[in-house]
Amino acid sequence: MQKFALGFVTAVVVVVLAGYICIRFGLMDSRADIPVSTFEQKLAMPSLDASVDRRAPEVKNPVESNDVNLIAGMKIYQANCSNCHGDIGHPRGMFADALYPRAPQFMEDAPDMPESQNFYIIQHGIRMSGMPAWKQSLSEQQMWQVTAFLNHMDKLPPHVSTAWKTEAGASQINDSSHDGSKMEMKDMKNMDMPIH
Ligand code: HEC
User: Fold this and answer.
1) Contact, 193 vs 75, CB < 8 A?
2) Which pLDDT tens digit goes with each residue over 173-186?
3) Is residue 185 lining ligand 1, measured as CB closer than 6 Å?
4) Is the distance from the beta carbon of residue 80 to the nearest atom of ligand 1 less than 6 Å?
5) Which residue in 6, 130, 164, 195 is a FRET match for 123, CA 20 to 30 A apart?
6) pLDDT tens digits, 18-52
7) pTM here?
8) Domain ranges (residues) in the chain
């Protein structure tokens, strides 16, 4: 029994040490544009889901999903989120393949988690990924509005959908390629938009 315990502890120490050496001495690839390994993909998503499931308070969205709030949410989304998550005019965002882990493309796979969990993710961001914590720059109400928009993204009322097409079109002028011109337009637009 004692031998087994010693063997077990040694194995754990070796694994931890090997992991530390890999990370500390640069054996891990630091590039964001390499393919995401199947192992990480299989592990990361359920781990994120389980963590959010455990922590996100079960609260109801205080914002009603009417046209006014959905349009407000759409504008917040278009200005702050579409580059990474895609929009109605550009189903694959400019940074679709530029982050590790990849940003989910919501036009291809709508976010179907409960609103309370999407709100929690938007509020706090996701550690070790490109997903920022938005509570630094958006008000509670704006975060709930963009949450309502996300949860209705694949079933938007026609009026909101039309407004989104116009907004997405307007923010993509000169976007014939990803040569930086789009970035410039969006940056300018973000500056114009009062987010508080
Ligand atoms: C710089 C890129 C970037 C921006 C900007 C960004 N996100 Fe994200 N987002 C990510 C990445 C990357 C992930 C996936 C992280 C992971 O898988 O661990 C993510 C994940 C999410 C998720 C979880 C999706 C799921 O299926 O688990 C939600 C919800 C989300 N983002 C909403 C938003 C909203 C709303 C905005 C704008 C207010 C936004 N994001 C802006 C990169 C971004």
Assistant:
1) yes
2) 545 444 444 454 44
3) no
4) yes
5) 164
6) 999 998 999 989 999 999 999 988 998 899 999 99
7) 0.86
8) 1-30, 38-192
